[in-house]
Design goal:
The protein is α+β, with helices and mostly antiparallel strands and 369 residues long. A 4-stranded antiparallel beta sheet has the order 3-4-2-5. A hairpin with a 5-residue loop joins β3 and β4. The chain is elongated and about 95 Å long.
């Protein structure tokens, strides 16, 4: 087994772990840096809005002996705008020119037919008005707002308001990064992009809810014990679902990567880029935010609660007492009652430390007959 596979197996069995929550300030800094870069790209370059949002004309030609590069140069000379030219499966071309009026569209169609040596009737010109794109954008914003409200209400009812706030911040984080990447890369924003942005919200929320569900169970009756703080229990819950999060994210990213890099990059199917880039960036950002943003945020908010502050003081005081007596805090924790051991997580993990191998019960140990 490879080193990576062995590490994954040990993570899955709970033999090792990582203190994600303890190093949360590092992750916050990384996220802030990425978000600022995305916002800067959005403000400086802006989004390359598609014809559906700006209006224009789409000219479809029959099979021609003209290359896409020659057609692009011809269309740019005629219209004065930079066109998008794609080769169709039938051998024809699809020439998309934005920011032109209806009268300009008719003139462009006539001149293109003359330069390509075909009849004007052989060219199909579809004029797109910007009002249609505005309707799509307005409906997308409405759908996004309704989705956010429903997510916050559901999580507040199913879990608690702190988890709802953390999930909302993680979703905004994912959307900001995805839109910023679109601005930096310069990909065209089309209705397919809007669909991709709305789709990634569900993926982003999936891993977060899985971790929150485990954390809710693990932190039940947390104030009745003095072995772990809330942050430590949150970190253990995160580690217990880490392999599942990685596996589901990789499986989801593989086909999307095929669409983006092979379909859109190698084969030149540009229309696949509309949705594949938003899905690829959104899935990756969603996996990152569920691990490094959402759960640490919940721990931060929860540790402000007076009960959790009191619990932390009791836990630290007990560990200090055990250390002063020359007793390993982990061994002191193991000495607690069997009932507490059944109801609570298994190993103490000091804040800021990497989780070591978990203590497994000795098999075959029983009363001697």
């Amino acid at each position: 087994m490879s080193r990576l596979g062995s590490m994954g197996a040990r993570l899955y069995r709970g033999e090792v772990g990582y203190d994600f929550v303890g190093k949360r300030m590092l992750w916050y800094g990384v996220s802030i840096l990425i978000t600022i870069t995305a916002i800067a790209g959005l403000m400086v370059q802006g989004l390359n809005m598609g014809i559906e949002f700006k209006g224009g004309v789409v000219v479809t030609t029959p099979k021609l002996s003209v290359s896409t590069e020659e057609a692009r140069e011809t269309a740019e000379e005629i219209s004065g705008h930079i066109p998008i030219v794609q080769e169709l499966g039938s051998g024809g071309l699809r020439i998309q020119i934005s920011d032109v009026t209806t009268s300009e569209s008719n003139k462009i169609k006539t001149e293109l037919a003359s330069d390509f040596g075909v009849a004007t009737n052989d060219l199909t010109a579809d004029i797109v008005g910007p009002s249609w794109g505005e309707q799509i954008a307005n409906k997308a914003w409405t759908g996004l707002g309704v989705f956010m409200v429903l997510v916050v209400v559901y999580l507040a009812i199913a879990f608690e308001w702190r988890m709802a706030i953390a999930a909302l911040i993680a979703l905004i984080h994912d959307l900001t990064i995805t839109v910023g990447i679109y601005a930096l890369v310069g990909f065209e924003v089309t209705p397919g992009t809007v669909i991709g942005l709305l789709t990634i919200l569900g993926y982003s929320l999936y891993d977060t809810v899985v971790v929150f569900d485990g954390l809710k169970e693990a932190s039940k009756d947390i104030t009745k014990q003095t072995r772990w703080t809330y942050s430590e229990i949150a970190n253990r819950s995160l580690n217990s679902t880490l392999v599942r999060s990685i596996n589901t994210t990789v499986v989801a990213l593989l086909p999307v990567a095929g669409l983006l890099f092979i379909g859109g990059g190698v084969l030149g199917a540009g229309m696949l880029n509309d949705i594949s880039l938003s899905l690829f960036v959104g899935l990756a950002a969603g996996a990152y935010s569920s691990i490094f943003i959402a759960t640490p945020l919940v721990a931060d908010l929860k540790e402000r609660d007076p009960q959790m502050k009191a619990l932390k003081k009791r836990v630290l005081a007990k560990r200090a007492q055990a250390a002063a007596g020359g007793v390993d805090p982990a061994d002191a924790a193991e000495a607690e009652s069997a009932d507490d051991r059944d109801d609570e997580p298994q190993d103490a993990t000091p804040a800021g430390a990497v989780v070591g191998q978990r203590r497994q019960p000795t098999r075959g140990r029983g009363k001697r007959r």
